[in-house]
Amino acid sequence: MTTTAVFPVPASAPADSAIEPRIVPEGSVGFVSPEFLHFSEPLTLSSGQVLPSYTLAVETYGQLNAARSNAVLVCHALNASHHVAGMDAERPDQIGWWDNMVGPGKAVDTDRFFVIGVNNLGSCFGSTGPTSINPATGQPWGASFPLLTVEDWVHAQARVADHFGIGRFAAVMGGSLGGMQALSWAITCPDRVGDCIVVASTARLSAQNIAFNEVARRAILTDPDFRGGDYHAHGTVPANGLSVARMVGHITYQSDEVMASKFGRTQRAPGPTGDYRYNYDIEFEVESYLRHQGEKFSRYFDANTYLLLTRALDYFDPARAHGGDLSKALAAAQARFLLVSFSTDWRFAPEHSREIVRALLKNQREVTYAEIDAPHGHDAFLLGDRRYHAVVQGYYDGIAARLGLGARRRVTGVLA
Amino acid sequence: MTTTAVFPVPASAPADSAIEPRIVPEGSVGFVSPEFLHFSEPLTLSSGQVLPSYTLAVETYGQLNAARSNAVLVCHALNASHHVAGMDAERPDQIGWWDNMVGPGKAVDTDRFFVIGVNNLGSCFGSTGPTSINPATGQPWGASFPLLTVEDWVHAQARVADHFGIGRFAAVMGGSLGGMQALSWAITCPDRVGDCIVVASTARLSAQNIAFNEVARRAILTDPDFRGGDYHAHGTVPANGLSVARMVGHITYQSDEVMASKFGRTQRAPGPTGDYRYNYDIEFEVESYLRHQGEKFSRYFDANTYLLLTRALDYFDPARAHGGDLSKALAAAQARFLLVSFSTDWRFAPEHSREIVRALLKNQREVTYAEIDAPHGHDAFLLGDRRYHAVVQGYYDGIAARLGLGARRRVTGVLA
């Protein structure tokens, strides 16, 4: 297996003191460790390039039933990983990114479902990507790692399903870029998806979305420490560029309202009479927050991976092969669908979800759509809004009933 | 006089071939040249620093009447200048930034009003700023130029009024950062402002607004070519940082809708079968547009000036000295007010203007408020929307009537 040992967060991150080591909170899947699945069959990519082999980092929660009918694939967004739920066995302070959603008795109930988290191909948390060694050269791939598309991820993940002997997922689910993967699964492998759950996502980026990605890329590409993408060979890291890229991202993940309520115009360290400092150091709390987020990100995320992920976002456009007609692109889909959007999400505003809903209805697909009036912007998909989780929980209860997976054995989460 | 010869746009900018040199279009003020007014009395700034002397670049259009009652001060936004209207006599392709608004027979009718454009103190188009020579050292001020506030600009501009013998402006007017200056004029010099016209502006930046400014500043400050602000001494220009800063700005100036209609997902140079290029070069038209805007800006705009202007935006908050109560801050104002906002402006959304309107009404001020349903986002304040210009034109006709300036002598613009 060709893997790199990279953790989803920096080694210097402080432990969460609220979590006592080795004590499992109610509703948690407990301590988890990734597996690294190696696939030696070449993968032909959308670009035409061929990846000779690859490794994917995977975590699973719950038990696959005998019929192999209860599997759920959770796809991740830009900077997340396979570590969806529970506490990393090696670093118990590292809680999965969708831990509030996935666990025993939670919306995605691991007492009944077998849940798989996969680090995307091309990412930097254990799956093969730009930081991995290119077997042909013995050096890190770096800038020479091939660009990937959402469809490439689906094909790579399909082999994970094969590995577990899963012919058809009970559900494929994701938020944001993860939602694109779920949607692409329903189009690309229609007979392998029972239900498709697409949260805070889109069927194609708008010009404004692409524009923000381009700003992020320019910040990275023009950082002298990027060195054409071969920064590893030069012993540098384009930390300034990555930091600016992340700051831009963070603004788009939050609503104007939530930034106003979290930070407002609060000053960080005003003079004795509340005076401004009259310099370009941190004046306002929001500046402190953004710089902190940017710097933290630049210490643990790989720049080539960030470029690759933003380009995959830009390129996703299943309607493109159908003259821009999304309903034609979705004609092949056989899944039932749950779409969720958030009122203050201006990155992928509700209209993006509504467009998908309309295209599905045109194909007479069974669609449930929830537009949640939440203040948190795009980030809402990661948060524990009660109505949002109740919708997802109710939807999964329906899936469980249809598949005869039985009733909930315990109640946590929004029902608790 | 201490001035620098810098033009508002790069010398390499192509001439607008639609404008024949020396032919004055209808409604244009014609060929104009700046004056450079030197003020040798020290100016004490909000920061407590003292600027020993300064020069302001100024253009004027129309004639000051004998009563000196018909003067209008036009304040500019981030990257504009004193060149508000007409064609620069030296570079006739350089049209003033608000030429569609100011001219004979236009909304701000130079047949009746004497209009003054002033390049802000600290800017880089002829007024004293970071690119000017510090008389104490004989070197450019660079990073040592003092930070300025909107109030400092008002005080500096008041001396321009004194220079022309104008005790009271018929109107002070501006959009965006220029609108802040108009508002500050009404608070700071209440007896010198007859009417105050505030377009697409705000009484204080939101956390999100500050966040975008901070991203722009980080891009500049962390560019190695910035060299602590002393790039001139090192013969460098932080072009990459300035370019990224400008790209971020451009996204916030436009609505999602207008970017969708201007650029959509149009590809720049797709392969023979419409294929993606699978690299980080320009793939989409919107990327080309942004890079072009960024690169152009980095060739003509000064980085220290950009930092200074964004900080002045952040700091503007007249309510701050009144416990956050904007109505108290506006209690001193005596002017009548016109506020204009645009429905798709998400940089300074209509709610920012409505807050000012409410605070003025609480003070029983006379307020006209127009919320224009225009698709262009923040940039709408610079464009020629017919309803917008009709509102401004009607308002100025009212000012002219009250001041006995007579009726329009010719009709152009929205009435034409």
UniProtKB/TrEMBL annotation, chains A, B:
Pathway: Amino-acid biosynthesis; L-methionine biosynthesis via de novo pathway; O-succinyl-L-homoserine from L-homoserine: step 1/1. Transmembrane segments: none annotated. The record marks 347 as: Important for acyl-CoA specificity. It comes from the Bacteria. One of its GO terms (molecular function) is homoserine O-succinyltransferase activity. Its EC number is 2.3.1.46. Homodimer. PANTHER family: HOMOSERINE O-ACETYLTRANSFERASE. Belongs to the AB hydrolase superfamily. MetX family. Transfers a succinyl group from succinyl-CoA to L-homoserine, forming succinyl-L-homoserine. This is Homoserine O-succinyltransferase. It comes from Castellaniella ginsengisoli. The lineage of its organism: Bacteria, Pseudomonadati, Pseudomonadota, Betaproteobacteria, Burkholderiales.
